[in-house]
Design brief:
two-stranded antiparallel sheet; mainly alpha; globular
Length: 668
């Protein structure tokens, strides 16, 4: 989920930031009207209201109508290139708008006939040119909404049915003609109308509306005030505020970049003022904002697509992500605490911080609406309706409060933001659907899985490492959602076939795609944070890697033992979670050179011995036992306790002999 621009924003200074076109009131009004119509259409379909006139839409017609309403606006909102007009809609984009609108309205009109006569396999002659046109429109839409990297991936793989028959093993698949491929892509429920589009239409839209409502009612300010009031005064306060606030905001926005720009604008200057280096401050914010994508209750579009792939409730995905996300943020928290203790970094003065009571009184409605949303999801099990009802509750409460009450401009701003979110995401997901369709059409979705297992020698660990590397590389150039979908089709079935938990495998792939935001050479999150910290992006990326080293191992922990995603007995879940948290503390202490209760571990050979032993102990604690590791959990824990004791004794010996000195912090 991404932040939409306001309509009164100034013209960007360079083509690099000219992402959204500045629209006149006519186009803005059309987007607002379309947004309202789409929300009404979704509610009508989800509640089976039959338009209060007994009219029922089959699913394909409903999806085609949504695409017809939203996808043409991709050519209006996003300029074709940096040289395209920014303050007006050129004639060629108007032509693309009309062509897309006409094509998808025609598809909606013929939806029943398509289903009855299986047009995706044998289309009438007069439809073939339309399917070719739609394919081209989808490619251009994904290029504008998702960027050049995702366009290249979609282009190459969507063309795959044309050359699959001439590919070598293990990439050889069924070959199809150009017209048949175009028809399958634009008409099939496995391609354009496949999993990504169904997830968008049935679940994602409601949570986009809810996220936009939170943004426009001031949730971001509440999260920041609450975090500063709670943690701003403690050791390394602003850095810990970044973790807490970014986790809260990221769970709502689902966008790493938006998260950094929102919370980092306050936390990064505060960190620098208290003595954190610019690189470290940027690295903290990049790590914290990246983790927000994994934080329930709202985890961005990827989680909803995952629920559709696995055919489970979204709540199941959110619950499964709870412990891994807590481990992620806990790992960052203890690493920052150790760093702050070692370098003598204190918190902020209470006089310059918001008061906790005042923050809660000003923003209690957000706590209430989150609790209400969780109640709707967990108790009433109304995941489709929950975000819509929660949005209404939030807006009603907001209008009852004089200081936050919306005026007409606030209403139109909320609708416009929601519309831009719809348009951008449908442009990306429609293109990604072609990737899924191509793999299913050629049979590669099934056969490639078996081929990978053979190539890996039936070794699940090899496939896991392959998945981590592939997800990481794809995450550099694609969105997290796009990278996840590609691997969920190609790689996940093979790993699951070797005995790994399906939910754990899919979360594993999502997690590793997410980590590319903080890892050089791309490290988009680190570069955005570096721009706020006024330092170099590459250095910030390496600082983020060092700070968040523990988080690279967490996905292996939960995929090796599903108890960490609540798949197991309560006793097993409690024990494995407890040892994982202990392990994270010891690993962070080793990497940062400071152990709580012992002191600074630096400056002698003995301190390095202590840190290495603590690192081993941490991994022994955090590594789950069971069938995949072949070691009983009890034996791992005993070994971890003995190893940790040796490391702690070595640490005390170092401190007694050399003293737990406080290092000097390098200034920005």
């Amino acid at each position: 989920m991404t932040q939409a621009p306001t309509q009164d924003s100034e013209r960007p200074a360079s083509a690099e930031v000219r992402r959204y076109r500045h629209l006149n009131p006519v186009w803005t009004g059309l987007i607002a009207l379309t947004t309202v119509v789409c929300i009404a259409l979704a509610i009508n379909q989800l509640l089976n209201l039959q338009f209060f006139a007994g009219v029922v839409l089959i699913e394909s017609r409903y999806l085609f109508l949504l695409i017809a309403a939203l996808l043409p606006f991709v050519f209006i909102v996003f300029p074709a290139s940096g040289k395209s007009p920014y303050d007006r809609v050129p004639w060629y984009d108007g032509v693309l708008f009309v062509l897309a609108l006409g094509a998808f309205l025609a598809y909606a009109w013929y939806a029943e006939q398509m289903a009855d006569e299986a047009w995706q396999f044998s289309p009438p002659d007069y439809i073939v040119p339309v399917t070719l046109l739609v394919w081209l429109l989808l490619l251009e839409a994904v290029r504008r909404a998702g960027g050049f990297a995702i366009f290249v991936v979609v282009l190459v793989i969507s063309l795959y049915p044309l050359y699959a028959g001439s590919m070598p093993f293990p990439f050889k698949g069924l070959a199809f003609s150009f017209p048949n491929t175009a028809a399958y892509h634009s008409l099939s429920e496995e391609s354009l109308l496949g999993v990504p589009m169904k997830a968008f239409a049935n679940i994602v839209m409601g949570f986009l509306v809810f996220g936009a409502a939170l943004q426009h009612t001031g949730a971001g300010k509440f999260f920041m005030d609450f975090a500063f009031a709670l943690l701003g005064h403690v050791r390394g306060g602003p850095a810990k505020v970044a973790i807490f606030s970014s986790g809260l905001l990221g769970s709502v926005s689902g966008s790493v970049t938006t998260n950094i720009l929102t919370t980092g604008a306050l936390t990064i200057p505060a960190m620098k003022r208290l003595g954190f280096s610019a690189r470290y401050a940027g690295g903290v914010e990049a790590c914290a904002s990246t983790g927000g994508v994994l934080m329930p209750p709202i985890m961005g579009a990827t989680a909803f697509v995952m629920a559709t792939f696995l055919n489970v409730e979204y709540l199941d995905v959110a619950i499964a992500a709870a412990i891994p996300s807590l481990l992620y943020f806990f790992g960052l928290f203890v690493a920052i605490d150790a760093y702050s203790a070692r370098h003598g970094l204190r918190g902020m003065s209470r006089d310059e911080l918001p008061k906790l009571k005042r923050a809660i009184l000003d923003g209690w409605q957000y706590i209430f609406v989150f609790a209400f949303l969780i109640y709707m999801l967990a108790i009433l099990q109304q995941e489709i309706l929950a975000p819509y009802i929660a949005t209404v509750v939030l807006i009603v409460i907001n209008q009852m409060r004089k200081h936050s009450r919306w005026g007409w401009s606030d209403v139109t701003g909320f609708i416009h933001t929601t519309g831009i979110l719809f348009i951008e995401l449908i442009g990306i997901l429609a293109g990604i659907g072609l990737v899924v369709g191509a793999l299913i059409m050629t049979g590669m979705a099934g056969t490639f899985t078996n081929d990978l297992i053979v190539l890996a020698g039936n070794n699940g660990f090899v496939l896991l490492l392959t998945g981590a590397l592939a997800s990481f590389i794809l995450g550099m150039g694609l969105t997290i959602t796009a990278a996840y979908i590609l691997l969920a089709v190609v790689l996940a079935p093979g790993v699951v076939k070797l005995g790994f938990d399906p939910m754990a495998v899919h979360l594993f792939l999502m997690y590793w795609g997410m980590l590319s935001f903080i890892t050089p050479p791309v490290a988009v999150g680190a570069y955005v944070a570096a721009s706020l910290a006024k330092t170099d992006g590459m250095g910030t990326g390496f600082e983020a890697m060092r700070l968040g080293a523990i988080i690279y191992f967490i996905p292996f922990f939960f995929v090796l033992n599903p108890a960490l995603i609540f798949h197991g007995s309560w006793g097993e879940i409690f024990f494995v979670t407890l040892t994982a948290f202990i392990g994270v503390v010891l690993i962070a202490a080793s990497l940062q050179g400071y152990l709580i209760g012992v002191g600074t571990l630096a400056g002698s050979a003995l301190s390095w011995i202590a840190r290495v032993v603590l690192l081993i102990a941490g991994f022994l604690f955090a590594l789950p036992g069971g069938k995949h590791t072949g070691i009983p959990q009890f034996e791992l824990t005993i070994a971890a306790i003995v190893t940790a004791a040796i490391g702690i004794v070595a640490g005390f010996a170092h401190v007694r002999r050399y003293g737990g000195t406080v290092d000097t912090v390098a200034q920005p």
